[in-house]
Every structure is written in structure tokens, then in C-alpha cells.
Write a structure and sequence with these properties.
Shape: globular
CATH architecture of the largest domain: 3-Layer(aba) Sandwich
Strand content: 5-15%
Number of strands: 16
Helix content: 40-55%
Radius of gyration: 27 Å
CATH class of the largest domain: Alpha Beta
Number of helices: 19
Largest sheet: 5 strands, parallel
Number of domains: 3
Length: 480
């Protein structure tokens, strides 16, 4: 029988209910609060041992509450819950003392496991010792975003890599997943954050110029070397060097990089004097380095030297839960950049994005949203400008009955105002092969939401449902 006291702080009644009831059944003593003010009142009267805290509350930012709670009681366990996670908010939450981080929508069993594990480690000293540098230098557009469990894990690993100030880091992931952003985040949250960050693409520079770019040269080292030139390693002194596409580095150059990492020194081209290195090496690749090692295309000793700490960034198709948040984030950026006053993304467009495989990952998603914002004429971004049909077989088809539902729910030249629907005689043409009732229900909800620009209150009223009932059905179909 559990006797621990848990306070759930979230402005959504459905979330409070879905969390509290299973926890009560497991024996926990649970109270709820719908705002920051109510939470602070219950801190005194209820004296919880753990708080499940939403990061976005109507009256205060959850991170500010986190700071207050930890300042008053450093032993209080706080687990952040949010529908919109990014590398900034996640690392800030850990910086301010959060014990864990859970993204919405969540699996209650997974949340319960986090709670049990956190309680089991309650007496362990919190090891989150973030550096005192400012995070304001992080450019808002350049950040990793995701609330899926996979990305939360990536954020945690980035934090740990940042804490190990001198260890090399290897970032693995397909093209377009955000490896460069991960490298910048490791630098930003490390003790080297005030020092330079240099990136060099090993695949973009000719073999004979790569060594010169990294190490520099002495005057007269080659025909056009009229004066001494510092290399990236020297210019980045005290900071970070990011070797992107390390898998494309020429084999002879791999040995020189290995020697520089091991000895912490190098020589300029044409030079005779060793220069000490004080840089952190972060490398990234979309290639399979283990396979390259087996084929003799990549040095095994360099592989093991780089692979001290590894960050694996999953492809977008394996973290579908992030697509909606990424889409809205890029929509807001493009809306601002191109001086548009668009209001939202249609539910049908989001549904199409969720069904797509995104071979170009986050980069492709961003480009698709940007293109659609530029081309869209109305106030809502629709599916017609996403240009996703060029990847056949990756987008799921709507059931045959959806066409008739579309005609019913969407305004067109023969609008409902001109042709009122007689609900007593409403008929939907169904395929002879049959169709699951839930498919019809899901399509009605999707198209009602699109008709009302994703305004849940209006969509619910249109369907003669309460907003809570609509949200319950949306959660049932994985729409939120």
C-alpha cells in the first residue's frame, strides 16, 4: 500500500482526472490543483512529497513554480508534464531541479513507472549541477523540439554530455534529424558556452584543404601560403569544434585527427612546433560507422575514441508524437517570417502529416510547412499545399465514406446556408465491403475540427457534444 502524497497541477480537468484516478487506485494519496495559485495553497495544507506539474498554467509558468517549490523545499520531487517540450524547456527544467519530465499525451502505465522509480530514488542526492551561464544566447529558431519519450531521452543525454566538459561526443542520426542542433546544445549548456563554437563539414571540403582548415599553415608551407594562418582548432581555443559528416573524412586525415585528440596537440602545415589543443570535439554522421570500420573505410581506433558518449537522434517517422508540435512551431516561425496573419493548421493537414513517412525528417517537415505558408491564400494552412504526394505509398487513404462526409461538413459553393441538411433523413453512402463505425466517427470529428479551424468549442457545439466529450473522443482516436 502506497502512502506517498502526490499533488497534480494541470489546468485541464481531463488530465487531472486521468492521472489522479489510476494513482488513487494504486494507493497513492492524491490532490489536484488547476492553477499555480491553487497549487501554492495546497502545498501548505496537503504537504505533498511529489508534484506532477504542467509547464503551462493559466496564471504562471510552470518553470517559475518549479523554482519556487525547489527553493522552499529542495527535497520535494517535481515531475514536469507538458504537451510542448523542447531542448530549452527540458534542460531548464532539469537546471531548476526537476526530477523527471513526461510529455503529453502520456501512457498512464509509463507515468506510474516514472513515479515509482522516482520515489525509489528519493534519498539520492540530486546531481543536477548546471553551470551558471546564461541560456539567453540560444537562438529561438535553432532548437530541438519534441515531447515524445524518445526526444525527452535525447534531451537528458545532451544534458549529461554537456556536464562532461572534455569528453568527445558522437551524434548519430539520419540527414535532417537535427544533429547540428544537438551539437550546439551540448556546447551551449557546457562550461565552454562562452567560448567559440566552430563547425566544419568534412564532406564539403576537398581532401587536400581539410587539414589546412583544421590545423592552419605556416608561411611558405605551400605555393600560395604567403603568410601564417590559424586553423579552426586554434581559433576555437577553449571552445568546441563540431566535425559534421565525420564518416566522409578521408582515411589519412582520420589518423591525424586521432593523434590530435589523443595527444591534445597538433602542428600547422609546414610547422615544426607543437600547439596545445584546448577544444572539445563533437562529431556527427548519418553513416553506419561500425559497418565502415568492418569494411576498412573508417579507423577503428578513431571510432572508439569518438564514441565515448553517443547521442542517437531518432528519425521523425519513429517519433510521430512530435510531428504536430513541430508543425505548429514551424508554422509560427514561417507565419512571422513572411508577414502572414494565418491562424492555424487544419486538422486534415495535420492528419496527412502524421500519416507521412518524412524521409527527409525534420528538415523536410520545416520546408513543407514553409512552402505551404507561402502558397496558402486563406487563413488556415490546408493539406493541398503540403506537396507530400511525391512520396507514394506513405500517406494513408481515407475510407470510401469520407468523400460523402467531406461533402456534408465542408462549406463550398453549395453551402449549408443555401442547402440546409435534414438530419432526420441524413444518409451516408457506405462501401459494400463494410466499414468500422469508429472510422466514420473519427472522420466526422476531423472534418468538423477543420471546418472550425481546430476550435474545439465550436466543433463540439457543431456536433452537439460537450467540449469534454469531444476531447475524450479526440484522445480515443489519438488526435491530441
Amino acid at each position: 500500500m502506497n502512502t506517498e502524497r502526490i499533488l497534480i497541477v494541470d489546468d485541464e480537468r481531463l488530465i487531472r482526472w486521468s492521472l489522479s484516478h489510476p494513482l488513487i487506485k494504486r494507493g497513492y494519496i492524491v490532490e489536484t490543483a488547476k492553477s499555480g495559485a491553487e497549487a501554492q495553497e495546497k502545498i501548505s495544507s496537503f504537504n505533498p512529497q511529489m508534484i506532477l506539474l504542467d509547464i503551462r498554467l493559466p496564471d504562471i509558468n510552470g518553470l517559475e513554480l518549479l523554482k519556487r517549490f525547489k527553493r522552499e523545499d529542495k527535497n520535494l520531487i517535481v515531475i514536469m508534464i507538458t504537451a510542448y517540450a523542447d531542448v530549452n524547456s527540458t534542460i531548464e527544467a532539469f537546471k531548476f531541479g526537476a526530477d523527471d519530465y513526461v510529455g503529453k499525451p502520456f501512457n498512464i502505465e509509463a507515468v506510474t513507472q516514472v513515479i515509482e522509480q522516482t520515489f525509489a530514488k528519493k534519498k539520492l542526492k540530486d546531481k543536477t549541477d548546471e553551470c551558471s551561464h546564461s541560456i539567453d544566447q540560444q537562438i529561438d529558431e535553432d532548437r530541438l523540439i519534441g515531447n515524445s519519450p524518445e526526444m525527452i531521452d535525447v534531451f537528458k543525454i545532451i544534458k549529461r554530455c554537456a556536464e562532461t566538459n572534455d569528453k568527445t561526443v558522437l551524434i548519430l542520426g539520419e540527414s535532417g534529424t537535427g544533429k547540428e542542433l544537438a551539437a550546439k546544445a551540448v556546447h551551449l549548456y557546457s562550461q565552454r558556452s562562452e567560448m567559440p563554437f566552430f563547425e566544419i563539414n568534412c564532406a564539403a571540403i576537398p581532401d587536400h584543404l581539410l587539414e589546412n582548415e583544421l590545423f592552419g599553415h605556416e608561411k611558405g608551407a605551400y605555393t600560395d601560403a604567403g603568410k601564417r594562418q590559424k586553423g579552426i582548432f586554434e581559433l576555437a581555443d577553449g571552445g568546441t569544434v563540431f566535425l559534421d559528416e565525420i564518416g566522409d573524412m578521408p582515411f589519412p586525415m582520420q589518423g591525424k585527427i586521432l593523434k590530435a585528440i589523443e595527444n591534445k596537440r597538433y602542428r600547422r602545415l609546414g610547422g615544426y612546433q607543437d600547439i596545445d589543443i584546448n577544444v572539445r570535439i563533437i562529431a556527427a554522421t548519418n553513416r553506419d560507422l561500425k559497418d565502415m570500420v568492418n569494411k576498412g573505410e573508417f579507423r577503428i581506433d578513431l571510432y572508439y575514441r569518438l564514441n565515448v558518449m553517443t547521442i542517437n537522434i531518432p528519425p521523425l517517422r519513429e517519433r510521430k508524437a512530435d510531428i504536430t508540435h513541430l508543425a505548429r512551431y514551424f508554422f509560427d516561425l514561417s507565419n512571422k517570417e513572411y508577414n502572414r496573419n494565418m491562424e492555424d493548421i487544419s486538422t486534415t493537414a495535420l492528419d496527412l502529416m502524421l500519416a507521412y513517412s518524412w524521409p527527409g525528417n525534420v528538415r523536410e517537415l520545416r520546408n513543407s510547412i514553409e512552402r505551404a505558408v507561402i502558397l496558402e491564400d486563406g487563413q488556415t494552412l490546408t493539406s493541398r499545399n503540403l506537396n507530400l504526394s511525391s512520396n507514394p505509398g506513405t500517406v494513408s487513404r481515407q475510407p470510401e465514406s469520407a468523400t460523402n462526409l467531406n461533402n456534408l461538413l465542408h462549406d463550398n459553393d453549395n453551402s449549408r446556408e443555401n442547402h440546409p441538411v435534414n438530419y432526420d433523413k441524413l444518409q451516408i453512402n457506405l462501401p459494400h465491403s463494410g466499414i468500422a463505425f469508429e472510422e466514420i466517427e473519427k472522420n466526422i470529428i476531423l472534418q468538423s475540427l477543420e471546418k472550425h479551424a481546430d476550435n474545439q468549442t465550436k466543433a463540439a457545439r457543431f456536433l452537439h457534444l460537450s467540449r469534454d466529450t469531444l476531447r475524450y473522443r479526440m484522445k480515443k482516436f489519438g488526435l491530441i
